[in-house]
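Example record

The entry below shows one chain as it appears in the dataset: sequence first, then structure tokens.
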Amino acid sequence: MPRELTQAQRLTLPRTKMSEQPPAERVRNFSEVPFGYNEEQAIAEADRCLLCKKPKCVDGCPVGIDIPLFIRHIRESNFLDAARVLRSANSLPAVCGRVCPQADQCEALCVEGAKHDPVAIGNLERFVADWETLNDAIPIPEIPPPTGYRVAIVGSGPAGLTCAGDLAKFGHDVTVFEALHRPSGVLAYGIPEFRLPRKVTASEIEYIKHLGVKFVFDMVVGVTVTVDELFEQGYHAIFIGTGAGLPRLMGVPGENLVGVYSANEFLTRVNLLGASSFPDNDTPIRRARHTVVVGGGNTAMDAARVSLRVSGNKVTLAYRRSMEEIPARKEEIHHAIEEGVDFQLLTAPLEVFGDESGQVTGLKCQRMELGEPDDSGRRSPVPIAGSEFVFDCDTVIVAIGNSPNPIIPRHTPGLEITKRGTIKIDPVTGATTRPGVYAGGDIVSGAATVILAMGGGRVAATAMDEYLRSLPKP
């Protein structure tokens, strides 16, 4: 039976911490860092929730999970019912519970967080998702009779998977086309195993398949087959969720030297192609003497922490603003510092140096100071004259952001894009300027979070269902 506590008593309960691997151990492996809650810990954390009648936390959730309801079920040890609540709005709860920025979204609006630590909503979501997997109790909803309408989903990242799952629940025939040889998009190639284990994404993919969704791999839509050809093949609507996989570069001399990686290439080699276990896998990666990662976002943290595990040697992170402006999740920054990443803040790259054979030998940088805020509201870095210096390094990883994948817009007549290269949509429906074509995720927003991409997939799925039912019966 749940404990009977007053609201005042709940406010005094401390936030339940997750235990995790010690830093000295985890830098030698790719196993998940936090261990997650057990049942007792999850119930204890659920006891902290005030179950607000007007829950602001729900407003902060891009997919609209009924957060108080699923937490109430945890408090009452009704874990299966908690899973049903989560799955009704979120096809990837085990993913979101691990990688979503709850501190900036649902937890940021938690009423308890006004004077105390907010309820650990993300940790509770992870607990429920892991519980249902461990107990082979993932609830599969009843699928309505087939509508006869066929939908093509381009990209199997979080936006595409969410859209596919929701459309399948409406009774539509859904096929996902993926350019790579495995599903999950950025969840597979961009996020390290120690943050998002592959068995977790594999379980979520199995759930999507149980809904009736089919997958086609090694298919580059826009090259292997065009959007027009998909319509000719009998698809009635198409969703584009191809993400933002085009890396941005620094634009400094020497950036083409051997030993300079984009974070995308580096993480893909390790996360998707198994470079960390070379020669057991035949994709090599440099075992660096000293790696400098340029950037301050979550991808930069991932690249730095992966570098520590791959090389076992020094890793420096160079970021041109201060710790107050750094955009990565606090948890990722904390873990990187614990593991030994050397943060060099207010530091901007100027040039990559190399030897006569074209191999990286150093990175010339300049110290910065913060000036007035820029358009994003963050204070702009200003160079300090005469402050140039050189990092003695043999590997540089560039993690300063990504741009939208341009392949489909280039090969799809009638599909308008913005000045930033993102696909132009109706924000209410996800509809593009091409009839029957919808889009969501990073290809629309630019590089953002997993949960925001999922929100875009949900919005589009609802609108696509309405669009499909307006068409003549197939």
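Notes for this example: Residues 450-470 form the longest helix (21 residues). Residues 320 and 347 are 4 Å apart (CA to CA).
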